[in-house]
Structures are given as C-alpha cells and as structure tokens.
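Hi there,

I know you've been waiting on this one. I reran it after we fixed the sequence typo, so this is the corrected version. Both the input and the resulting structure follow.
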Amino acid sequence: MNNLVDNLHTDVYVNIKRLMENARTDVAKQVNNILVKTYWEIGRIIVEDEQGHSDRAEYGKALLKDLSKMLTKEFGRGFSVSNLQFMRRFYQEYEIQQTLSVKLSWSHYCELLSIDDKHKRSFYEKETVNANWSVRELKRQINTSLFERLLLSSGDENKEKVLDLALKGNEIATPNDIIKDPYVFEFLGLPEEKPIMESDLEKALITHIEKFLLELGKGFMYVGSQQRVTLGNTHYYIDMVFYNKILRSYVLIELKTGKLMPEAVGQLNMYLNYYKTEVNDEIDNEPIGIILCANKDSIQAEYALGSLSNQIFASKYTLYIPDREQLEEQVERVVKKYKKNKS
C-alpha cells in the first residue's frame, strides 16, 4: 500500500514539476519577446531623434552618453553606451519590426550584430532559428567560421552558395550539403602539436558526442562506433556510423590522423557497398562516406575519389579554431575566380 501511495505522490510531483517548467519557459519567451521589441523601439527613438540634427555625429555621442547616465540611474544596469549603440544599430539593421524572430533573444541579436557582412549575418540568423542554437552554440559557430567552411566546401559554386546560405541557411538536399572543410574539433581540448592515435581521437569524439553532432550539422543521429562488417571469414570495423534523417542515409566516417591515402578510400568504398546490400532498408537512400584526415593533398584526393559510384568525401579536421581572416581570404579568392570564369 505504501508503495502505491509513494508512486501516486511521485506522479503528482512529476506532473506539477513539468507544468512549472513549461510555465517558466513560456514566461521567459514572453519576457524575451517584449525585451527585444522594447530595445528595437529604443533604437528607433534614438535614430529618429539623431536624424533631426545637422551635427548628427557629435549630437549622437552626447545623446548616448546622457541617456546612459539617466536610464542607468532610473532602471539600473543594461543601458551602457555600448548597449545603446547596439539598440541603435539593431533598429538600423532591422527597420521592419516584423522581420524579427520570436525565437531569438537579445543576446542572440547582439552576437549577430557583431557581424558586418549582411549575407553572413543572415546565414547565422537563419541557422540559429532552424537549428535552435543557444547563444553559446551561435558563438562557437561564428568563432569556427562555419559560413566560410561551408562556402569552401562548395568549390566553384561559391557565388550562388553565398546567396543561398544568406536566404535559406544551410539547406540539406544532397550529400554535398552536409560536408564541411575543415571540421573543427577544438572542443576536444587535445594539444595540436602532440601526435594522436586514431583510436584516441575516436574515444575523444565519442566522449564529446553531443558537440561532435553539433559540428556535423543538422539531422545527424549517432548509431555507434567500431561497427562490424563481416565479409567471408574476415571482420572489419567502421570507425563511426551515423544516420542523417534529412537525407535518409547512413553516414560512415573513417578517421585518419595522417594524410589521406588511396587505401582508405578503397576500404570505405567496400563498407558503403556492404551497407547498400546488407543494412539499408527500402526507405534508405545510398550511404555516404566521409574520411576525416589531418592532411589532404587536393590532387591526390581528386584522383583517389574520382569516378567512384559511391558517395565518398574527404575533409580535413583541425584541433584548433582556424584563422578566420585566412578563411575569409580563401573564400574571396574563390569568389573572384568564379566571377572571372563567368565573365
């Protein structure tokens, strides 16, 4: 009898707890929406007031400084000069209030406003909404130059890709859409200069599987590591297997802590043939193979991967956040080359 009472009490507690958590979430969303709209209105008032003066620059500086003092005295923190500058820019960048997303917080918008390039900012905004990124996740994606990495993965289609990413975010329609180059594993905390074994890299990725899934992108689900493939009397083991629910495809990943070798391509090709024949269900599309390697010779990769019937991609991985300026320069070179070829 006591067990029954305890279970009933537990059920009551769990139901009330769930109700309170949902209520808190709803209240937080409402507060966030009101806050975002209020800061937008503050930005509008500041901009419209500044526009009425001929010496706008000097007037604007004095206005923000005085407003900061008065509002901080009246309402406390949150009205520093830099925050007021963000509110002003917030209105300038989103002059139509209806374009604001109810899914994004003021902290999200502050991160987005730090990006000057409108195409790039639009991409991160779309991805944050689509993937429901937290502010921390958005920061990481910006710091690891996701926009540039996706563009560099697209090769000569770069110019169209810029516009597509800005308008839609990263839409996944083909296997090529899930590929990044490079992949960034800074979350593992492994020293870059110290040699690492493939088994240790695999263990580290499994330990941080949630962050690895975030780096892989949308639609990925972890199936397992060291998945056995038996051919005749010989057992082989695939490093990591995922399933992408958007593409409806198994994704087989092989880890190479050295450079890309042709043998690795042949072995992964064998695994893909096995999955097509033995593992795929009727609803599954053809499996995809990704070789993640520390070094990739582009010419060697082109010959090793060319003319394969299976979909195999090779990408580099790095254990540190790449130099953003260097990636931006690479993107600029590819876009210029694209424009030159088109003209």
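Quick highlight: The chain has a mean pLDDT of 86.

Best,
R. S.
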